[in-house]
Write a structure and sequence with these properties.
heterodimer; A: alpha+beta; 4-stranded antiparallel beta sheet; 3-stranded antiparallel beta sheet; 3 helices; 33% helix; elongated; B: 193 residues; alpha+beta; two-stranded antiparallel sheet; 42% helix
């Protein structure tokens, strides 16, 4: 079976750092959990028929956005020119906005952080791309109808009517 | 129906299945919300005793002579018992064919990892170019990686191969840039003499 034969649909929730990244994808009969770096991906499949439950655990997680933190010193370089006629208050505004975004991101993780596990008969499988309850809710809304349809009992064949 | 707390591993009580509201785990106190699916309440299917033991007139499993054959391998046709048959999509495979498919990477459903050579090539084309001088090594390396692994599949979930094309074009452009620079330097030096 070639990769083209399986159509994947991206599921809510994504973590993409400077080096590490992870995501979840939905196929016809399984959920593909992709975890790895920019140059290597490791796959884990959870078949829809095996999923017994979805367990969300609230937890405090402070997630700092590395790209935003990396932008800070670059923005800082422009501060000496902030009172100049060319740049005006733009650099200091950009710096403040970046700091605000970092703080909001961290606070969001503090108040709405969570872990999501898919429970199967042999144990729980963590979905690494889900870090917030909002993403978990969207994830659940997307996979619940698909799993329910897959796990629904097959309709019984009608008994042959006697002639 | 036995679900465990993701934090402490303790079995969750019935109250968790009644509503998806957050409730604390009895042992670790973690706040959990459980959304059960129909498989949670289904009785597990067990292999029937009659499918394991072979009667005198029945075919036996290729690997277990005492066990009754209930499937044939889709790939090699060996008779298999209920324990040896591995279901991969619509195929039933024997253990040897399963391992063979996984090693030969002929079935995407069995792949567990992939190296993204297109991303490596693109990084080799872009990252050294930021320092300008290092691109003299990065550009040929990017072109080599892009061409050497041209036929290798990229990510399972990513269809586009634009990274490979971009790496090749950038690498060639950088090499041409360096060549133009050297030719110009040689020409200028000769003109000065």
């Amino acid at each position: 079976v070639s990769a083209e034969a399986i159509r994947y649909q991206r599921l809510p929730g994504r973590r993409a750092g400077v080096i590490r990244k992870c995501a979840a994808w939905l196929a016809e009969d399984h959920i593909l959990l992709v975890e790895g770096t920019r140059f290597h991906e490791a796959y884990r499949r959870v078949y829809l028929s095996d999923i017994q439950a979805m367990i969300v655990r609230r937890r405090i997680r402070v997630i700092l956005s590395v790209p935003l933190i990396l932008i800070l010193p670059i923005e800082g370089l422009f501060i000496p020119y902030m009172v100049g006629p060319t740049w005006g208050w733009l650099p200091i505004t950009a710096l403040a906005a970046t700091l605000l975004l970092i703080i909001v991101g961290a606070l969001r993780g503090y108040f709405t952080g969570c872990d999501l596990d898919l429970a199967t008969a042999v144990g729980n499988v963590r979905v690494p791309s889900i870090t917030h309850t909002s993403a978990a809710t969207k994830f659940a809304a997307m996979i619940t109808p698909v799993i329910t349809a897959v796990q629904a009992p097959a309709p019984e064949t009608p008994a042959a009517t006697p002639q | 129906m036995a679900l465990n707390c993701p934090q402490c591993g303790f079995e969750l009580r019935e109250a968790f299945f009644e509503s998806p509201e957050y409730k604390p785990c009895l042992i670790c106190g973690s706040e959990l919300s459980v959304l059960p699916f129909p498989a949670c309440f289904a009785t597990p299917t067990r292999i029937a005793e009659s499918d394991l033991h072979r009667a005198e007139e029945e075919n036996s499993c290729f690997h277990h002579e005492s066990k009754k054959a209930v499937h044939a391998c889709t790939q090699c046709g060996k008779f298999l018992c209920a324990l040896c048959a591995a279901e991969v999509g619509s195929d039933i495979l024997c253990p040897a064919c399963l391992v063979g498919r996984e090693q030969k990477r002929t079935d995407v459903r069995l792949e567990r990892e992939r190296t993204l050579y297109d991303s490596i090539a693109l990084t080799l084309a872009i990252a050294p170019a930021l320092t300008i001088s290092l691109s003299i090594f990065g550009a040929p390396a990017a072109v080599y990686v892009a061409l050497r692994y041209w036929r290798r599949p990229t990510s399972i979930v990513r269809r586009s191969r634009w990274r490979q094309y971009a790496a090749l074009l950038l690498g060639i452009a950088e090499i041409l840039g360096w060549a133009a620079l050297f030719i110009t330097l040689v020409y200028v030096r000769r003109t000065v003499r």
